[in-house]
Design brief:
Length: 441
């Protein structure tokens, strides 16, 4: 089969019209007409050094967990963003500007570094936008970005991506704080398809999260997905400590195993970082738990290359919020090609690469739409104009401002089996449900 370029596969759909324009012809982030495209004024490009804009370039910098006390890292998100920005530059830039990608600052998964890292990016390095934003501890730093109208793009796993016009999650607002916001039911829907059932009626699901910003809100989202799908949720707690490694998961495993009227639930969802998924997955398996264990963070070949984590994760199911890498996908072919252009040693894609890549891709789409005469204000106006964007065989359709309040209810499901990832359910889109289904915000 001929390898299709992403540039010919991405579409922009104008709200209220039926016109679909291919980005290679009319402009957009994922393969847009980047070389001096026609998205803005013909009067030439402006400059604003405080916002990272010159007539010929725009500064971008990321905020990424590269190192941490618990051994958790998502440093390859930086590589994914670099790869996408590199292709944009190779194609001539966007509206006459090249992307001056400064790399990513390490937030170290440390809450005390949240605000200082963001201030460094904006006030010292003068980046126009934060891309990619990969910080489970994003809180005060996010408030600073919102207050100063600085766009940021990433995996929207903290509430700061929700209910403002500057935080752009490539899967939308994943952990809202407002009861009226809509959250994805894909995590439950994929398990339905795996088990061959229409919904969760008569079945139970338990879940656990870390005692962190992302964990506290993230577990509500997962719980809402299962409740909306008819599952009983007898256990949903944010209790695993952060800041230092957990070495004994026995108490958590025992709590789960007796959570369903003294017995075990049918399904368990890990709403934690990878080290805690690995530890608790192993503890539950050793204690005799037989049901599917689902998580959203162990989709990375490095976990299978390590004998210890590979053994601990054998049989685990991973919820992937885009098209998994095991099936045929022109989007994945292009992504790997772009990554290898900047790092030929990379042989396969990872979740973190995809996070950085799609964050950069959507940013480029919005940058194209903003035109030549650029400011943060004009950029945000263009980014929030209501148009819909998708990557066929990549990510589900997304539009802002809608996705500041709602999730993109799409995903795929893989299983770790025989030391490798096996696709169980390809990219499928489900429905959203209001967070108010839990009866609380």
């Amino acid at each position: 089969m001929r390898k299709a370029r992403l540039t010919t596969g991405f579409t922009t759909v104008a709200v209220g019209t039926v016109m679909v324009c291919v980005l290679a012809a009319c402009g957009g982030g994922g393969g847009s007409k980047n070389n001096n495209g026609s998205g803005g004024s013909s009067n030439g490009n402006n400059s604003n050094s405080a916002q990272g804009i010159s007539a010929t370039s725009i500064k971008i910098e990321g905020d990424v967990v590269k190192t941490s006390a618990v051994g958790y890292s998502q440093k390859q998100a930086d590589l994914g963003a670099k790869a996408r920005f590199n292709r944009a530059n190779q194609e001539g830039g966007v509206n006459g500007r090249k992307i001056d990608y400064l790399g990513s600052v390490d937030n170290k998964l440390d809450p005390s570094q949240d605000l200082p890292v963001v201030k460094q990016i904006v006030q010292q390095d003068h980046a126009f936008a934060v891309v990619p934003m990969v910080s489970p501890q994003l809180a005060q730093g996010g408030q600073f970005l919102v207050q100063n109208n600085v766009p940021f793009y990433g995996w929207g796993i903290t509430p700061t991506f929700c209910n403002n016009n500057v935080g752009f999650g490539f899967t939308g607002c994943l952990v809202p704080t407002s009861a009226s916001d809509q959250v994805s039911t894909a995590s439950a829907g994929l398990i339905d398809k795996l088990l061959g059932i229409p919904n969760g009626d008569g079945k139970s699901s338990a879940m656990i999260a870390e005692d962190s910003t992302a964990g506290t809100f993230g577990i509500k989202v997962t719980q809402a997905a299962y409740v909306a799908d008819g599952w009983k949720v007898p256990y949903a707690k944010s209790v695993i400590p952060v800041g230092s490694p957990t070495t004994d998961f026995t108490p958590y495993a025992q709590a789960v195993l007796h959570s369903n009227n003294g017995g075990a639930p049918d399904v368990f969802f890990h709403v934690t970082t990878a080290p805690n998924v690995i530890g608790l997955e192993s503890a539950l398996t050793r204690a005799g738990f037989k049901g599917p264990q689902e998580n959203a963070v162990t989709y990375d070949p490095s976990y299978l290359a390590n004998p210890s984590s590979r053994a601990a994760l054998e049989g685990a199911y991973v919820f992937v919020q885009y098209q998994d890498f095991q099936g045929t996908s022109s989007a994945n072919e292009q992504m790997l090609k772009d990554v290898q252009a900047v790092d030929p040693s990379v042989k396969e894609l990872t979740q973190d690469i995809a996070i950085g890549y799609y964050s950069a891709d959507i940013f480029l789409h919005h940058l194209q739409a903003a035109g030549h005469n650029l400011s943060r204000e004009s950029f945000l106006k263009a980014a929030n104009n209501g148009s819909s964007y998708s990557v066929p065989q990549g990510i589900g359709a997304i539009s802002f401002p809608n996705a500041h309040e709602n999730s993109v209810p799409c995903g795929s499901l893989v299983q770790i089996s025989g030391g490798k990832y096996v696709e169980k359910v390809p990219l499928t889109c489900f429905k959203n449900t209001p967070l108010s289904i839990l009866g609380k915000s």
